[in-house]
Amino acid sequence: MDRGRHHLDSEGYENIPCEENPTELVMRMRMVHEELKEGKRSRRTQRKLLMVLVTLLVLVFMFLIILIGLVHLYYSTVSSQIKQADSQISRALDGIKQNILQTIRKEIRVCDSGWKKFDGSCYYIVTTKKNWMEARAICKSMNSDLVVINSEREQNFLESLTDESEFWIGLKRDKDRWRWVDGTLHNPSEGFWMKGEPNNSGGKEDCVHMWRDKKWNDKVCTFLQKAFCEK
């Protein structure tokens, strides 16, 4: 190596003549070193900025995915609610239509000769005394059934039809429950029972008739009496 030259390391320093003032040489070396350090800091800063930018892009992408999902969920929910509301409105309109039709039928219904009309139904008194099953068979032969009493108004109407008592009605024991002939269950704590009834006296009183003062009483089904039919 030439004595008049000093070879620097591989960081990029150029060969600097030894004849230069040592102070200037040191200053130049410091300047070069600072420039290299600044370059490294600049590259690190650029890498950090790039990482921040990539992170922001990922976050924005995730936000867009979540936003799209929420929008889809919102419109799916709204669509489902609209369908449910439409279905409920349709059912309500159908119910209103049926009620109107039933009211019209009640108003224009004409009962056959010998039948009495009340609240859209027709009633008939079977005057021949029969047991409960026979009385029901007679009602069915006239396209009707033993009466199902749904209200106090209907009970009062039946009481007004005749001064006589003891008429079969369409209520019968079904094991440990009471059931009307149309299939609906009856709660014995309700209705128009005589005081202390039903009591199933003798363990065989499975049918119901109107008895004293036209109130209800459970009775042996083979007992012979008149009946009320309804259609």
TL;DR?
The protein is built from three helices and eleven strands, in the order E-E-H-E-E-H-E-H-E-E-E-E-E-E. The chain is α+β, with helices and mostly antiparallel strands.
Textual characterization of the structure:
Keywords: Lectin, Membrane, Transmembrane, Transmembrane helix. Residues 118-230 form the C-type lectin domain. The chain crosses the membrane at residues 49-75. GO terms for molecular function: carbohydrate binding. The protein is of the alpha+beta class. The protein has 2 domains: 20-108; 116-230, Mannose-Binding Protein A, Chain A, CATH 3.10.100. It has helices spanning 22-108, 132-141, 152-161; strands at 5-6, 16-17, 116-118, 121-130, 145-146, 167-174, 177-180, 185-186, 207-210, 216-219, 225-230. Strands 3, 4, 5, 6, 7, 8, 9, 10 and 11 form a 9-stranded mixed beta sheet that branches. The longest helix is centred in the N-terminal third of the chain and has 87 residues, at 22-108. The termini are far apart. Mean pLDDT is 84; it is low at 1-16.
